[in-house]
Amino acid sequence: MPMKKFFLPLFIFMMGVTVVHAQLPAGSIAPDFTVTDLNGNTINLYSLLDNGKTVYLDFFATWCGPCWNYKNTGALETIWDTYGPPGTNEAYVIAIESDAATNTACLYGPSGCVGGTQGNWVAGTNHPIVDNSSVAGSYAINYYPTIYMVCSDHKIYETGQLNATGLWAKRSQYCAPPPLVVNVDNVTNVKCFGTSSGAINISVTGGVTPYTYHWSNNATTQDISNLAANTYTCTITAANGTTITTGPIVVNGPSSALGTTLVESTPMGCNGVFASLTVGGTGGWGNYSYLWNGGSNDPTINGLVPGNYTVTVTDNSGCSKSNTFTVAPAVYPTAVVAPPASISCLVPSIQLSGSGSSSGPNFSYLWTASNGGNIVSGATTLTPTVNAG
Prior knowledge:
By secondary structure, this protein is mainly beta. The protein is 13% helix and 32% strand. The protein has 6 helices and 22 strands. α4 packs across α6 (164-174). The N and C termini lie far apart (140 Å).
């Protein structure tokens, strides 16, 4: 039975037992308030409501026997543990000590208490406890305990001293569920071309839990992974049948496979001229880094001798590809001169032939004369004309 500290005996004497009711009409808008709990946490009612929470308010006094008995049923503690932040995070519970004649010490038991207490109200209570009589005034509290439920639309209803099942049933009866809201928390793009390494993470609020999920790739989990580059949608259905569809959500991937191309090479030359290789990344996500098997991180390596050189190119997503390039031994040119004809008084000049020598755009030629010979023309060709001088 609710208790009013000073006036209940007078009511009994004059009128017998009188049933009184909280003065805020059912369905009216709950006044906003900001309070600080015993642990120093600041709590604002409308912030909780605007985040979709249903808030249960327990207005009590430490000297109130019915309040103490209701605390010990554990009904509000069950709501907190099951549906509050430790549970599904759909509800919030605030116990408000509302008698200005008692001090904060009364919440912890008789020691130092002024105004009377039933015991230690803090022990075994995990939901917030507030010592603030001003809130009770705005809620027109005229007996203890008064248990209110405030829906996320800010409308208030008195529930009475119900067990946890009954309290939650009141929510289903009076509180229209907030609309379903889907947030795309993270999209992981495909790491390497042609792989299924993408992922999508979403979160859902509002509606009535539990939710079911149906993705466009037929997945039925909240988050999906092992995805190829593509677009995806998800339809979420709440327990009360309301639905919402999110998407399209794009999982991107590189347009072509990561690779390495040989940009430039200098072959091994004669007389100790070393080779060099310059490579470049292609495809993938770009922003390439390089690592040669000799430890160099530059796309160009110099001072090379004949052999195989392996480079690993890595793109911006961490995808890697290795290629091996070969430096061939130096190619030394050959010089071959055909047997010459004889020079005589009748044949004073002849044409020499070096056509058996190495030929091509990478070769140059230079003939020299000795022992009285003379090059008439073509000293830098394979077929010079010479005479005896």
